[in-house]
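Researcher: Before we compare anything, I want clean individual predictions. No alignment, no superposition, just each chain on its own. First chain goes here; please echo the sequence and then give the structure tokens.
Model: Echoing the first chain and its structure:
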Amino acid sequence: MEMMIKAFQEPTRPVSIKFQLSFGLANAGASIALLPVLNILIPAQVAQLDPAHSATNLAIVLATGAAGALISSPLSGALSDRTTSRLGRRTPWILIGMVTTTLGLGILAIQQSIFVLAAGWFMTQFFGNILLSSYNAIIPDRVPVYQRGTTQAIVGLSTPLIMAFSIYYLGKLGHLATGYLTLSILLVLLTIVFLSFFREPQLPAGILPPLSLKAFIKSLWINPRQNPDFGMAWIFWFMIWSAYALSAGGFQYLFLQNAIHYSTLFPGHSPQEGVATIQILYIIAGIPLMTLAGVLSDRMKSRKIFVTIGASLLACGLFLLGIAPAWGWVKLAGAFIGAGFWIYYTIGLAMISQLLPAASDRGKDLGVVNIAATLPQMIMPWIGAWIINTIGIEKRASYLVMFCSGAAIALGAVLFLQRIKKVP
């Protein structure tokens, strides 16, 4: 019974700075196995394989990968909630995620067709989200409420610093397979560093019923009448990620290639380098503001105001990107988007961790939340591709409509955020 209490009770003991730093590095390892691949490597590969159908092929690859994440997050969360290994509930799945995500990156490195690229991205997203869902569950498992903003800020600080290096490095690469190898090595090393420090209590066998398919599917529905704040948070998360999905990934690549004409502006330089520059600006703008917001949200015991600021900055950045007449405006828009993203992401997760319905289902419930972040990755690439193909891939108006639509969605998300009452 004591072990059961340790596994399920709300944490009150403060975590050490050693835990926070190693946890931040582990999250960074998982993130760099996904985000730089999504934003830089895959768009470049799609453009190389079939330049004439880049928008449609990109939608196919991104939506296929998002389907993997959609399935993985709630399923792995529910399984880890019930895991009774001596290593604990989350550690076995972190190890599984590390090994299999590395294999997925290997498939992406040797792809020769859109089909193989889509299959490799599905595998990488599926197993990479096992890693991320395990890490997300560790926050409510181990970190007390009064440290969650600061811990998320440290996670957010570690992730962009590692990503800045990887993005700059990937932007300069001519041989993309080398980039996948580098990301794989970083993933393994940073995961092992965290696991060398991390210990968690074992869940005794028989505490939770075995997971059945019927029970799992039923558990994905969390009644919004009984949990209204969780429902509002889910809608907010879905809308804000829908907005962000139109500003990130391959659409930036196509925007720089066809509307800004990056290679003409900077002869000898590819749009891949331009995307890397924007991603680094995300980080430069986001790190100080995100860190400040994390610390202040803990001291003020308030999350919602900071998440509102982040979502509003994202909307401003998307609008600027839509009307950007030149490269300098694109960089300014990137700074707004980056600041907004890192604030709403880090403080938003801290806020959501306080709205989970049941301690025994933290992993599964966070997987349900991740569905709200994943569905837009399946839907928005098709909407973006439809806008671009309808108006014209080289027409400036295509990107104006797409980015301003994202800005409107982000502002709509802010309205749903205000309806959350349980967390100030």
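Researcher: Okay. Second chain, same rules.
Model: Second chain and its structure:
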Amino acid sequence: MTSVRPASQVRSVPGLRPVSAWGRLVRLLYRAALPLSDALGVVVAFIAAYELRAATGRAGELSPLPQYFPTLALLVVSLIFTFGLSRLYVERRATSHIDLLGALFVAVTIGNVIAMAITALSLNALDVPRLLLVFAWALTIGLVWAGRMLLAEVLRAARLAGVESERLIIVGAGEDGHLILHKVLGAPELGYQVVGFVDDEPHPEADRPVLGPLSAVSDLLQRHRVREVVVAHPGLTHLQLLNLVAACSSAQASLKIFPDVFQLVAREVTVSEFGGLPMLQVRDVNLHGWNLLVKRAADVAVSGAMLIILAPVLIAVALAIKLTSPGGPVFFIQERVGMDGRPFPLVKFRSMRVDAEVESGPVWALPEDDRTTWFGRLIRRYSIDELPQLVNVLVGDMSLVGPRPERPYFVEQFSRLIPRYAERHQEKAGMTGWAQVNGLRGQTPIGERTRYDLFYVEHWSPAFDLKILLKTLPAIIRGRNAY
């Protein structure tokens, strides 16, 4: 039986940076700067909207700008209040720019409605032109978002310099725990210091020290001044999890739980009631009815428009392939597995030699793969070789967003090795997906990619699709694991 260290014998952590007073100052200044930046963005947006309305309207339609200052003041107060209720002043280290833009869209809309409702109830209120309000609404979203991005870059620089950091421990030193560790180490801009693991087993092979058993969590949180705990231990009992929650609450540390998606259906859950009894209701996100109609309509409209707009690019790429790699076809057509396990012919621009797999058989592409032509390497780097798949989307074989399709040879292998792998075929294959915009391409582990694909399948929504599409272009430019 494996020995377990008692709670009184937790390990110290050499090389851990001390909690800096400068870090606390930077965090305080950031929190103070947020509402000031937001207020400035609202004021500048309103003044710019006034000037834009004056330039596009007839003379005499607008009152002098100072007469709108009471409305502007009410708008600033309403928006700051709405942002607070929307938890936009709660610091989150891993919020994406796209998520923030979506949250601002909702909050600015609500804040504007509240301000205009109060203005309408005031007997002496000045009538504000509707077009001015529309301009101010759109400019407010953009300028407030830009201001927050600027502050985020300043904070990011402080975190990269090690000035503003948060200490974190990971519960569970197994495979899931190391997945979290490597994600944190790969994103130093988040500003986390991983103190170590907490586990009842010693795990001498762990990449960070195992600080002690689960019973020592309270002591570890206080001793190392930890402010964030990530649970990545699928074997925790209900009682152990409740004890962790209590320990984190007592130490004022936030708690995140990484789900085991291979054993737990991680669909969106809401609280409801059944005859007065509390119930957890799983949200139905399957593509049927209106959901299917909306997604298909977006696929047809966007793919059709993109094929027309990009026609000159497609023709130029086709000519370049013919000139740089004569003797072979322009397009590469390969059987892939789509929705419900049905095969379909996927179309790509040819980027490799015609005899690329004559000797090797089915294999994935490698970095600096000598089977790739020099022009093929260029178009693969920026995913231009994938553009013909717009035809697959238009005819209904694929969707713009979804799990990337694999070849039947690989699907058969992965279905045997990876639990729940086949469930990624519950939706149409996509040109881009949640795994791809998070850098999981090329030789990245298929198990990790499957986690992201299942998360997409179980949390699908039109807004999620839009978020992935908006993140696709930056992901292509970064080119992580693209070869």
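Researcher: What stands out in the second chain?
Model: DSSP finds 15 helices and eleven strands in the chain. Additionally, The first helix runs from residue 21 to 56.
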